[in-house]
Design goal:
The structure is a single chain. By secondary structure, this protein is α+β, with helices and mostly antiparallel strands. The protein has helices at 6-36, 149-166, 176-183, 190-195, 222-230, 333-341, 350-359, 366-388, 397-406, 429-435; strands spanning 79-80, 83-84, 93-94, 137-138, 172-173, 208-214, 234-241, 255-264, 267-276, 282-284, 310-312, 317-322, 325-330, 394-395, 415-421, 439-444, 452-457, 460-470, 473-476, 478-479, 486-487. The chain is 27% helix and 21% strand. The protein has 3 domains: 1-36; 79-341, no CATH class; 350-487, Beta Polymerase, domain 2 (2-Layer Sandwich). The N and C termini lie far apart (124 Å).
Length: 488
Amino acid sequence: MPRVNRTLVFVLLLTSSCAFLLFQIYYYRNYVSKVRGGALRPGVLHPDRINGPGSEQDCNPRFVSILGESQIASWKLSVFRNRWRPAGSFMRNQPDVPTPSNVHLMYPEYIFKPKYRPGEMKNITPTRPISSVQQTGLHLLNPAGHVTSSQVQWQTLKKFLALAQHFRLAVFLADTTVLTLLSQDALRQRDRMIREPHCSFLCTGRPITSFALQANQWKLNPGFLLAAEQKGFELLEVRGHDPRLASLDTLSGEEIPLHFLFRLHGYIIHVVLLYERSGNYLWHGVLRLKANMDQSFAPFKLLDYGRHAGAYDRPELMLTVIDSLDIRVPRNISRFLMQQQRARYLECRYHDARSFLQLYPDDSSAAAVEFRRKAKALLNLAARTLGELDIPFWISSGTCLGWFRQCSIISYSQDVDIGIFITDFRPDIAEAFRDAGLSLKHKFGKVEDSLELSFLGEDIKLDIFFFYKDGDIMWNGGTQAKSGRKFK
């Protein structure tokens, strides 16, 4: 038999092994990695449908990632065999509520630099298509295999938002802690995102998350409450008198729902109902528990809303993705938070006003009626002008007395008085009122001591008094026109 060349055989075997290894590397890099990297495949939903086929939602919102006022946003998507995996966590299938979205915020893969004012958030469209997968709910575990409190809270929020979406309740995020995190710079959130990669914003460590809902969208549909009960939620409904029906002639006797508190696994979801008032603003009532209600249902002292009634401008909302959940938020978060800090609403005391007017009837002459109409229009103009400048104010002097004493404007006062803290003074106030159609009539004092501005509109004077803080007291100054003497 011929002698076998062992060296040649060894070289052939080595060559074939290397060729096979190179083929495996080529196949993995060009096919398998594309699938794992999130390439679109048959069966993956279109990006403009965020809830899959059969969704109750009839809008096609853009996906928006928001990480703060610097607006550094990022998208991170990992789709593997039709399953989404949050970074740093494990999961298993749990037949629960369908996942609304599969977008996970990470730091930072794409950096967007839109041009707009701080505090406002615009829709940001990612540079690559985002796919969405209809799947069962995620059950997130930490590396040790245990469910953490933040993961339970995330599941609770996800379940509630899915119910609200199914019943077409456009709740929006009103939680001050979460909104504050969203309004901060994204760079300051890097450490927090590393610690809680799946729930960086919504899981704040507080047992309560607050949402708001415009009351005209709330219909007493027992189906929503029944579905919430079937999902395991416990409900506490707080009702109160409807102030929209109150007047000097009659007092409101009808009760309306004001607050809903949903409890699951020790976490509370607080829904505040916002009612539209005649002044084109939104109002919510105070949360008062009746004697037969469970006083331990929730940590009521931690609630953002309910200690007093509140009034808000109607916020412009946008749909965004926060911690992989589709949530509506105010477009201008900073403005909403600023309003929330000073939104306390005081209802006019109709009972006391009616008693006063029985002793001192109001002037009902044509001249008095016309003056009150012009005064209200001037006050409304002042509110709009100062609102555009983000300057808070209050009614003062005779105008305040008329509201407090008789729920109206004193007809013989012949002017409108408002107050502003001197710390909120801006040099362009006079120009803003001139642009609104008012003329500057007087300017007394200086910014340092006793500033006072007077504007004229429709034969009615608008007096703006500036108030100064001195320790525990607050005062406003006055200047005598002829002598120039100053008074406190």
